[in-house]
Amino acid sequence: MLTFKVLSALLAYPEPALVTEADRLIAVLEQEALLPPEHRQAIARFIDGLAGMAPLDAEERYVALFDRNRSLSLHLYEHVHGESRDRGQAMVQLAELYRLHGVEIDARELPDYLPLFLEFLSMLPLPAASSLLSEAVHVVAALTKRLTERSSPYAAVTAAVAALAARPAERAAVADVLEMLKPEADSLESLDRQWEEEAVRFSAAGGPDRAAVAASCGR
């Protein structure tokens, strides 16, 4: 499902090459029509806005938003487990899920990075991808709330991600996420720890077994 891949690209660091693909990204969303029309229109406006920015301005906006605010971290488990040991175990399990479906992670990677997770979902059948996304939708919804409060255009992207989940986020679960990493977490010490984490990429070793994925994730 290329829609997941488009949203992954939009949430990753805005490389200049992304702007050259603006029209194609919008076309993919329209052709697949997985998102409701209002979300497709919002994403098209976001892409148009990104294309109209100077590359350095787009990069500085991204860094100021996601790299300098731990409460807006794009690492999913940080919002659920914080710095507890449970986060490491959860990431091991997620990495194992990737391997189970034929995806090998390159070198030192953090599998809970949202753009990476979305790229993985793009390789799965839609029912399995939507079901698996539902397990993280409360984190995505919390990010959307925080981005909306900051009047950030990126709220349109995370809202679109949440719209692809098989089940909407539960209000209580979103509240728990918002309590885990409050804006006070955006301290220099917290940011130093976050910046020590490495960038993530992965590649597919063959394709995922679609029947197996649907069976294991369709719950």
TrEMBL record:
<dbReference type="GO" id="GO:0051082">
    <property type="term" value="F:unfolded protein binding"/>
</dbReference>
<dbReference type="InterPro" id="IPR020945">
    <property type="entry name" value="DMSO/NO3_reduct_chaperone"/>
</dbReference>
<dbReference type="InterPro" id="IPR036411">
    <property type="entry name" value="TorD-like_sf"/>
</dbReference>
<dbReference type="GO" id="GO:0051131">
    <property type="term" value="P:chaperone-mediated protein complex assembly"/>
</dbReference>
<dbReference type="InterPro" id="IPR003765">
    <property type="entry name" value="NO3_reductase_chaperone_NarJ"/>
</dbReference>
<protein>
    <submittedName>
        <fullName>Nitrate reductase molybdenum cofactor assembly chaperone NarJ</fullName>
    </submittedName>
</protein>
<dbReference type="GO" id="GO:0016530">
    <property type="term" value="F:metallochaperone activity"/>
</dbReference>
<dbReference type="Pfam" id="PF02613">
    <property type="entry name" value="Nitrate_red_del"/>
</dbReference>
<dbReference type="GO" id="GO:0042128">
    <property type="term" value="P:nitrate assimilation"/>
</dbReference>
<keyword id="KW-0534">Nitrate assimilation</keyword>
